[in-house]
Amino acid sequence: MLNGLWLGFFLVATVSALSRWLLGGDPAVFAAMVESLFAMAKLSVDVMVILFGTLTLWLGFLRIAERAGLVDWLARLLGPLFARLMPEVPRGHPALGLITLNFAANALGLDNAATPIGLKAMKALQTLNPSHTTASNAQILFLVLNASSLTLLPVSIFMYRAQQGAADPTLVFLPILLATSASTLAGLLSVAFMQRLKLWDPVVLGYLIPGALLLGGGMTLLAGLSAAALAALSSLLGNVTLFGLILLFLLVGALRKVPVYEAFVEGAKEGFEVAKNLLPYLVAMLCAVGVLRASGALDLGLKGIRTLVEWAGWDARFVDALPTALVKPFSGSAARAMLIETMQSHGVDSFPALLAATMQGSTETTFYVLAVYFGSVGIQRARHAVSCALLADFSGVLASIGVCYWFFG
User: How far apart, in whole angstroms, are the C-alpha atoms of residue 42 and residue 36?
Assistant: First the structure.
C-alpha cells in the first residue's frame, strides 16, 4: 500500500507539472519540484534533530516507568477492553499500558510526549506480529486511533490564534472537541468494520459509555468558563500533567528501589537507536509530499472543489479553509503555515480562519504518522490502515465544516 501511495504522489505531481508546462507555459515548475526535493530532505534532518532529543528524553523516563511496574498496571487495568479490541495482544502485555499513555498524552495535546510513547507501543506490538513487514490488526487499530488525534486540550491552536491577535483565542475549543470526537469515532468504527470487532460487547460498552459521559460532562463544565479562565486552565493542565507524569515515574521508581538514573540512561540509549532508524522513512515520505505540493496539484484540486461547490449553489466560504485540511495529512508544518496564512489573509476571527483552526485541531498528519510509526518497526504493507486513517481525517474535516457553520455561520 505504501509503495503504491508513494509512487502515486510522484506520478500525480508529474502529470500536474506537465500540464502547467505544456498548457500553462510555466517551465519553472520543474525547478520548483527539484528545489522541493532538497528542501524536504533538509526538513527531514531538521525533524530528526528534534526527534533525537525528544525520543531520548521520553524513552528514558518510560524505562523508569516500565521497571517501576506502572506500564504493567495500566495494561492490567485496560486488559478486558483490549482483549476485545486487540484479541491477539495477551492480557497484561506492556504494549497495552504504553498505548494508554500515548492516548492520554494525545488527548492533552502533549505531542512531544505522545510520539515517543507511541513508538515504544508500536515496537511492543511488533514483538507479537508474526510478519516483519505487514501490519497486524492491533498495530492498525492503534495507528488509526492515534492518527485520528482525539485532543481534549488543543493548546497549540490557542497559541496560534493568540499570536495572530485573536480577541478570544479559545473560541474554537468546543468546535475542535466536537470535530475531533467525530474523527476518532469514524476511525474506530472503520477499523471495527474491517476487523469484525464487536463494539456492542458489554465489556467494550462498559468502558466506552463512562468515557463518553465523562467527556460530555467535561465539555459542559468547560463551556461555562470564561475565555480567559479556559485558556489558563488549558495551559496549566497540560504543563502540570506533563511534569506530573515525570515526577510520578521518578517517585514510584524510587519507592520500588529502581535505580532511576541508570534506568533513564538505558532507555535513552534505546531512544537514540529508534530515532536513527527513522530518517530514511521520513526522507521518502516528506520528499514525495514536497514534490506533490510544488507541482501545483493541491492548488488545482482546490480550484476544482470551489467550482463544484459554486455550481451546486452552496456557500463556498469553507473552501478558503481547505488548504489546511488538504495538506494536514501530509505535513504538520505545512498545515500550520496554511492556517497562519489563512488567518493573515482573511482575518484571525473570520469564518475561514476559525474553520481552518478547527480542522487543524481535529485531524492529524496521517502520512507522517504512518511513515514514523510503521517505519520505526520496518512495516511496509499497511493493509487497511491508510484507508481507515484517511476516512477518520475526512470525517474530521466534514465535522469541522458542519460544527463551524453551526457555531459561527
Answer: 10
Rounded to the nearest angstrom, the gap between the alpha carbon of residue 106 and the centroid of all alpha carbons in its chain is 8
Identify which of 49, 46, 238 has the alpha carbon closest to the alpha carbon of residue 156: 238
Q: Which amino acid is at 8?
A: G
Q: Which of 187-191, 215-219, 231-235 has the lowest mean pLDDT?
A: 231-235
Answer whether 157's CB lies under 8 Å from 353's CB: no
10 Å Cβ neighbour count for 223? 11
The total of other beta-carbon atoms located within 10 Å of residue 41's CB is 16
Residues 213-231: pLDDT tens digits? 877 777 677 666 665 666 5
Q: How far apart are CA 95 and CA 89, in angstroms?
A: 8
Task: Confirm if 125 and 137 have CB atoms less than 8 A apart.
Answer: no
Task: Please write down the HEC assignment for all residues of 252-294.
Answer: HHHHCCCCHHHHHHHHHHHHHHHHHHHHHHHHHHHHHHHHHHH
Residue with cell 481535529: 362
Q: CA–CA distance from 193 to each of 196, 204, 367, 388 (Å)? A: 5, 15, 22, 10
Q: Show the CA angle centred on residue 388, arms to residues 384 and 394, nearest 5°.
A: 150
First to last CA, the chain: 39
What is the grid cell recorded at 356? 481552518
Predicted TM-score (pTM) of the model is: 0.69
The 10s digit of each residue's pLDDT in 73-84 is 776 777 787 778
